[in-house]
Amino acid sequence: MWSISKKELDGLLSDESLANVSFLVLGKKIDLPYAASKEELRYHPGLTNFTTGKGKVFMCSIVRKMGYSEGFKWLSQYID
Fold first, then answer.
1. What is the rounded CA–CA span in Å between residue 30 and residue 14?
2. Domains of the chain with bracketed CATH
3. CA-based angle 79:42:7, to the nearest 5?
4. pLDDT tier at 51 (50, 70, 90 boundaries)?
5. Taking a C-beta distance cutoff of 8 angstroms, is the pair 31, 61 a contact?
6. pLDDT at 1
7. Where does GTP bind (predicted)?
């Protein structure tokens, strides 16, 4: 799973046409016991040195109704 995500993300981050584009990473399904942690979601795809703003992945759950709002608010500051 991580290798596919990392390959896709590396492709996006190395695309010069996207050099000034912000990316929002949402860690979903945190209400499930086997959900990845914030640290895993930063480490495995290689985001440890690439995050800005809050310096983390935004952890989210539809069931708990949490996290999405913070992520979208963070992203909205980069939209003209």
1. 29
2. 2-76 (3.40.50.300)
3. 85
4. low
5. yes
6. 65
7. 29, 31, 62-63
Cβ–Cβ < 8 Å for 3, 45: no
Q: Per the structure block, which two tokens stand in for 61?
A: 């759950």
Which segments are annotated as binding site for GTP? 29, 31, 62-63
Percent of the chain with pLDDT over 70: 88
Closest CA to 28 of 41, 10, 43, 14: 41
Q: At 27, list the tokens.
A: 């860690």
Q: Which residues contact residue 2 at a Cβ distance below 8 angstroms, ignoring those fewer than 6 apart? A: 44, 45
Per-residue pLDDT reduced to its tens digit, 38-48: 888 777 777 77
Question: Is residue 37 scored above 60 in pLDDT?
Answer: yes
